[in-house]
Design brief:
Blueprint (H helix, E strand, L loop, with lengths): L29 H6 L30 H14 L2 E5 L15 E5 L7 E4 L3 E5 L5 E5 L6 E5 L7 E3 L9 E5 L5 E5 L10 E6 L7 E11 L5 E7 L11 E7 L6 E2 L11 E7 L5 E7 L14 E7 L6 E2 L9 H6 L9 E7 L5 E7 L4 E7 L6 E4 L15
Length: 390
């Protein structure tokens, strides 16, 4: 995640947004890093967290069940460990920032922050409370698993060094999904999506795409597919697809024509009951894009078998310095939301939220109400972010 040491005031001129680069992790090769990319909402943090942690407004809601919802939100914050990935920003290095990709756990109020490893990236909780992640500690990038306290780390399988696996997740059935280099991988394009068993056996190339997310049952995968490839494809577009882990049932879930202001979709995340897919919804970045030319960038959901997308977050683009100055944590006027993850009860989504100058993790319920702060920083590249209650 981005370091927390930038000036508390925005620069006087528009900042250049990192091009097609959502996830701030070191994976040893630029081609795979670029394939992760898209809108770079504030994951690299154009305005890196100042560390001042100004107080946000009260949760917004129009629900008749506001009291019970607030109780639900408090429970999620107090009982579910958040997994975070702090890593150097290869596009915008900052003195004093992280020099390695490290994995921590922490509660929403910032308490009990614990370093688990300084050599790991793109971690996710497993259904049984372990942590699966990528690491190059064995001299090539491989998939590893460890206990919740960072102990008993073990490598899973022995993948080709050229694969560079990333974003591993495990289902209840023991199946693992991850993305990595395949024969057709090119910069700024789709990569391979693979599955294998929890003992490393049965490796299979499932499809091409990026940012796969495995259902809790381990029976199907949601993923991003880029429709135009290469750096010369401008504008390029990305949409959400799904496929069964046996290779059948491939289906597109979002479409370019869904909404003119929300043509693209990225970073899918399947609800625990497998009825919904949350995702980034908006306009992807293009070269020479600036903060003031960004389109809409929000979190939305779509039924798992397809249907109308529903926007949940209230973020709006800024076009003037006055609008930028007003986009503060205290006001609740966010500029962008991205990188959603479900709470274990399926009632909430947490996500990166961009303000001026902070990047934080906020939450909203699946009805688009009770928009509020969850954690005062970005969680980084973590797909299954919240541990089931101990």
């Amino acid at each position: 995640m981005p370091p927390n040491t930038t000036p508390a005031h925005p620069p006087p001129a528009p900042l250049q947004s990192p091009q097609k680069s959502r996830w701030p992790i070191i994976i040893g090769i630029l081609v795979l890093l670029l394939a992760l990319g898209g809108v770079a909402v504030f994951a690299f943090s154009l305005f890196q967290n100042s560390g001042n942690n100004p107080q946000p407004p009260a949760a917004t809601t129009t629900s008749n069940t506001a009291t019970s919802t607030v109780i639900d939100a408090t429970y999620v914050k107090q009982h579910h460990l958040l997994l975070i990935n702090e890593a150097p920003n290869p596009y915008q290095p900052v003195a004093g920032g992280p020099t390695t990709s490290s994995i921590y756990t922490v509660y929403a109020d910032g308490s009990k922050k614990t370093l688990l490893t300084s050599d790991g990236s793109a971690p996710s909780w497993t259904p049984d409370g372990k942590i699966i992640f990528s690491s190059n500690r064995s001299r090539s990038q491989q998939i590893w698993i460890m206990d919740a306290d960072g102990s008993n780390a073990k490598q899973i399988g022995n993948l080709s060094a050229s694969t560079l696996p990333l974003m591993p997740q495990m289902g209840e059935n023991g199946l693992i999904v991850f993305m990595g280099i395949d024969a057709n991988t090119r910069p700024d394009s789709n990569v391979g999506i693979y599955v294998m068993q929890k003992d490393g056996s049965g490796l299979k190339h499932l499809t091409s795409g990026m940012q796969p997310f495995l259902s809790l049952s381990g029976t199907w995968v949601a993923y991003t597919f880029q429709t135009e490839t290469g750096q010369t494809a401008i504008p390029y577009h990305r949409e959400i697809w799904r496929i069964n882990t046996d290779g059948t049932g491939q289906k597109q879930l979002t479409f370019l024509g869904d909404d003119p202001e929300y043509p693209d979709a990225n970073a899918p995340n399947i609800s625990p009951n497998e009825q919904w897919v949350a995702f980034f919804s908006g306009v992807e970045s293009i070269p020479n894009d600036t903060l003031f030319t960004w389109g809409h960038r929000n979190v939305a959901i779509v039924p798992a078998n397809g249907g109308a997308r529903k926007t949940l977050t209230p973020c709006k683009p800024v076009r003037t310095q006055a609008q930028l100055q007003a986009a503060t944590v205290a006001s609740g006027n966010c500029i962008a939301a991205d990188n959603p993850a479900w709470s274990p009860d399926g009632k909430w989504l947490i996500f990166d939220t961009g303000f001026n100058p902070e990047t934080e993790t906020w939450m909203v319920d699946m009805h688009g109400e009770n928009f509020q702060r969850f954690y005062s920083q970005s969680r980084g590249t973590v797909r299954v972010a919240l541990k089931y209650a101990d």
